[in-house]
Amino acid sequence: MRFSFFTLILLFAVLNTVKCTMDSCRQTFGSRKYDLNRLSKFTLFGSDDEYDYALTLCDIVKAEACHGHIVPYEMSCQYNRAFQMWSTMAFLDGKSTFSPNLNATYTENSDGPGTGVFMTTNNGDPCFGRTRYMRMKLICDRTVEQPTNMTIVQWSNCDFHVEVRAIQACPIQ
């Protein structure tokens, strides 16, 4: 009986962590359907003078991408190289432990129909009295099949703007 109980717990743990993609990453704008979960198999990296960033859109970012730290349901992290500290930039929908625990929001790219999606999160770690905010411009670029990089700029404290080019940001046919 003991073996079965532990086996059941282990199976539950594995099934619970295998795939955590977000249903909200599937969006329709007019006749154009986007499935950003197609980007969940890629970890995107960016950096600036002080920080390293990692993002796995619509899924959990891997610990090795965030300098070894593990935070449940973390989608993106920021690592301060000077202080060797990290912060969670965004959590999966409904998984932040901080208030407000908001889900991601989406709009179609303002460059025109079929050019991509804006994804906005406002559920990261506390940062100077508010939560970290990310606005991700996901650009439909049929020449980038295996994205690995993102451009990221901190516009003001705790306000990050990201740009990703990928074929997976194009409408699905």
TrEMBL record:
**InterPro entries per the record?**
Man6P_isomerase_rcpt-bd_dom_sf, MRH_dom
May I ask which residue range the UniProt record assigns to the signal sequence?
A: 1-20
Q: What Gene3D superfamilies does the annotation carry? A: Mannose-6-phosphate receptor binding domain (2.70.130.10)
Entry-linked PROSITE patterns? MRH
Identify the keywords attached in UniProt to this record, alphabetized: Disulfide bond, Signal
Ranges for domain MRH:
23-172
Q: Know the name of this protein?
A: MRH domain-containing protein
